[in-house]
C-alpha cells in the first residue's frame, strides 16, 4: 500500500472529517546535508504542515556538465573536496523557509515561483530549490489526500495515469565501466508486458540470464557496473591496444545506428561473438537481432552536434533521445523541436529547478509530439519522487523508483494501465 505520513503526526483524536476541515499551511522547513549514492553531499528537506512532515532529497548529476544549471556548493577543499552544501542548507533554513511559511502546500506553482524569485540569476542553486519543491509537492498531495502521482497529474493537467515502460540497463559501458565497451548503456524496454509488475519480471530475468552468459564467456570483468560514460566517435577508445587513430565520422556513426535499428548488425561488436547468417546477426545462438531491433538511442552524437543528430532523426528509424544535447533546458528543447533535431527528451528534474519547471518542460516536449523519459541521476538518493513523476506525464529508472512504481500499480488496482507497446505515446 502507498501511504502518507498523515496518521503518524495526528495523535489528538480528531475524526477524518475534522482533519480535512483544518486548512493546511506550511509551518516549518528544515534542511540538512546528506550523502547521495556516490558519497557526495546533497540537500535534504523536511517540510512540516498541519498534516505532518514531508521529506525530499535532491539528486545530483555530474559536477562538470556544461549546460546543466549549477548546484550551490561551498568550494571548501577541506570538506568533501569542496562539494559540501552547507551554504545551500543555510539558504533554505534562513531565506526560503521564511518566504514559504504560511503558504498552502497545494499551490505548487506559487511555491515554486516564490522559490525562483529569491534567485533571479540564470544559474540557479538547483539543489536547494528542487529539494524544497519536491517536499512541497508531497505535502500538497497529502493535503488533498491523494497519491503523489495523482497530485502531479493534476498539476500537469493530465486526466489519466499511465504506468511507464521501464528502461532497464542490462550492460554498462563508457569511460567509468570496467569493460571495453564504448557505448555507455545498453537497455531493454519490456513493451510486450501486460503490467508493470510483469515488465519488471521480464527485465530481472533477462538481466540475470545475460549476466550468466557474460560471466561464462568473459569473467567477472564483463559484469562491472558503470557510473556514467561518454559515446564519442571513437568506438575503440577503451581497447588497450588501440592505435588512437580509428575514428568514425558522423555519417559513419549514423550508418551504424541505422543498421542497429533495422537489426542488420550486432550492437556489441568486438565484445560478444556473432555469426553472420544470410545478413542476420545472432547473439550466442540464442536470438537474432532482427527480432529485437534497437528502438531508442540516447545522445547518438556529441552534445553540440545538432547537424548529425537531426540527420539521423530524419531517417525515422527509432526514438532519438536528447540528453546532453538538451540538458532539460527549455531554450535548447525549443530549438530541437523547431529544427526536429530529435524526438525524445531525457528529463532530469535537477536540471530544471522545481517541480513546476519539470512539468512545463515535459509538456513542452509532449506538445511537440515527443517521447519523454524520466531519468535518475548518477548521484541518486533514496527518494522515489521521480517514480510518481513518471506516472503522471512520462517514463523512469533505478531500483527504489521501480519499487515505488510497483506500489503505485498495486494501489491503482484495476485503474492501472501499463503503457506497453504504446510506450512512445501512452
UniProtKB/TrEMBL annotation:
Residues given in the record as Mg(2+) binding sites: 298, 323
UniProt KW keywords: Glycolysis, Lyase, Magnesium, Metal-binding
Name the record gives this protein: phosphopyruvate hydratase
Needed cofactors: Mg(2+)
Annotated family: Belongs to the enolase family.
Matches recorded under PROSITE patterns: ENOLASE
GO term, biological process aspect, one: glycolytic process
Domain Enolase C-terminal TIM barrel: start-end pairs: 160-426
Metal-binding listed as a keyword: yes
The species this protein was found in: Spirodela intermedia
Amino acid at each position: 500500500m502507498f501511504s502518507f505520513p498523515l496518521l503518524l503526526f495526528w495523535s489528538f483524536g480528531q475524526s477524518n472529517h475534522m482533519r480535512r476541515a483544518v486548512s493546511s499551511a506550511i509551518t516549518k522547513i528544515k534542511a540538512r546535508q546528506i550523502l547521495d549514492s556516490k558519497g557526495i553531499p546533497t540537500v535534504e528537506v523536511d517540510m512540516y504542515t498541519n498534516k505532518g512532515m514531508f521529506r525530499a532529497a535532491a539528486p545530483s548529476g555530474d559536477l562538470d556538465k556544461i549546460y546543466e544549471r549549477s548546484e550551490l556548493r561551498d568550494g571548501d577543499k577541506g570538506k568533501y573536496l569542496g562539494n559540501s552544501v552547507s551554504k545551500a542548507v543555510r539558504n533554505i533554513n534562513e531565506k526560503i523557509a521564511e518566504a514559504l511559511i504560511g503558504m498552502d502546500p497545494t499551490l505548487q506553482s506559487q511555491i515554486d515561483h516564490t522559490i525562483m524569485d529569491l534567485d533571479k540569476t540564470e544559474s540557479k542553486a538547483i539543489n536547494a530549490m528542487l529539494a524544497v519543491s519536491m517536499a512541497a509537492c508531497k505535502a500538497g498531495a497529502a493535503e488533498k489526500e491523494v497519491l503523489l502521482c495523482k497530485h502531479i497529474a493534476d498539476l500537469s493537467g493530465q486526466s489519466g495515469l499511465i504506468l511507464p515502460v521501464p528502461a532497464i540497463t542490462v550492460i554498462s559501458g563508457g569511460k567509468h565501466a570496467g569493460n571495453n565497451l564504448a557505448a555507455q548503456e545498453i537497455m531493454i524496454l519490456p513493451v510486450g508486458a501486460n503490467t508493470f509488475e510483469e515488465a519488471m519480471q521480464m527485465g530481472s530475468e533477462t538481466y540475470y540470464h545475460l549476466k550468466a552468459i557474460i560471466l561464462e564467456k568473459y569473467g567477472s570483468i564483463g559484469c562491472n557496473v558503470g557510473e556514467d560514460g561518454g559515446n564519442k566517435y571513437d568506438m575503440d577508445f577503451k581497447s588497450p591496444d588501440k592505435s588512437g587513430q580509428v575514428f568514425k565520422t558522423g555519417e559513419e556513426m549514423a550508418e551504424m545506428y541505422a543498421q542497429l535499428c533495422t537489426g542488420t548488425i550486432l550492437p556489441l561488436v568486438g565484445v560478444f561473438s556473432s555469426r553472420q547468417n544470410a545478413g542476420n546477426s545472432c547473439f550466442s545462438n540464442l536470438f537474432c537481432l532482427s527480432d529485437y531491433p534497437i528502438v531508442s538511442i540516447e545522445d547518438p552524437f556529441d552534445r553540440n552536434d545538432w547537424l548529425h543528430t537531426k540527420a539521423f532523426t530524419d531517417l525515422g528509424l527509432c526514438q532519438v533521445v536528447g540528453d546532453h544535447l538538451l540538458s532539460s533546458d527549455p531554450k535548447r528543447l525549443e530549438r530541437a523541436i523547431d529544427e526536429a533535431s530529435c524526438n525524445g527528451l531525457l528529463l532530469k528534474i535537477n536540471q530544471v529547478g522545481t517541480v513546476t519547471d519539470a512539468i512545463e518542460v515535459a509538456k513542452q516536449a509532449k506538445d511537440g509530439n515527443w517521447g519523454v523519459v524520466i531519468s535518475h541521476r548518477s548521484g541518486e538518493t533514496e527518494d522515489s519522487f521521480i517514480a510518481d513523476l513518471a506516472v503522471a506525464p512520462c517514463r523512469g529508472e533505478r531500483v527504489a523508483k521501480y519499487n515505488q512504481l510497483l506500489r503505485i500499480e498495486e494501489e491503482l488496482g484495476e485503474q492501472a494501465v501499463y503503457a506497453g507497446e504504446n510506450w512512445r505515446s501512452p
